[in-house]
Amino acid sequence: MTITTTYRVEGMTCGHCVGSVTAEVSRVPGVTGVDVDLAAKLVTVTSRGPLDDAAVGAAVDEAGYELTGRAGAPAAETSATPETPEAPAAPAAGLPVIELLPADGAAAGQADSCCGSGGCR
Questions:
Q1: Does residue 100 form part of some domain?
Q2: What CATH number did the domain enclosing 14 receive?
Q3: What does the pLDDT look like over 8-43, one tens digit per residue?
């Protein structure tokens, strides 16, 4: 019997992230395949039988990311009171504001550009 389960995973931003999650989840007993959809933040796991979600979550955590639940399941409940982010501190008078770019010089937000060296986590 083959079972396919899809999980939501937060924090992945590049090909290195995909490789890390794939490697760690592949080590979970019973897993026969792992497919990561970076854009959708989904990890689809094929297994020989039912998987222990906690074991998959621990593998994702070991890779440096957060499993937030099964895809299609309701997202975890959030606080009824939204948090208000603090305003960034203003630069000291007379100092320039510097924008930081990824190490490889690519535009921010592009897949595979978060860590030019492949060591983002």
A1: no
A2: 3.30.70.100
A3: 999 999 999 999 999 999 999 999 999 999 999 999
49, 2 Cβ separation under 8 angstroms: no
Instruction: Classify residue 11: in a domain, yes or no.
Output: yes
Look at the block and give the residue holding tokens 């998959």: 56
| AA identity, residue 17 | C
* Residues forming beta bridges with residue 118, ordered by sequence position: none
Q: Return the HEC string of 44-111.
A: EEEECCCCCHHHHHHHHHHHCCEEEEECCCCCCCCCCCCCCCCCCCCCCCCCCCCCCCCCCCCCCCCC
Number of domains in the chain: 1
Tens-digit pLDDT profile for residues 37-87: 999 999 999 999 999 999 999 999 999 999 999 987 654 433 334 444 555
Domain for residue 101, yes or no?
Answer: no
Residue 67 pairs with which residues in a beta bridge?
9
The model's confidence at residue 90, banded by pLDDT at 50, 70 and 90, is low
Range of the domain at 27: 3-70
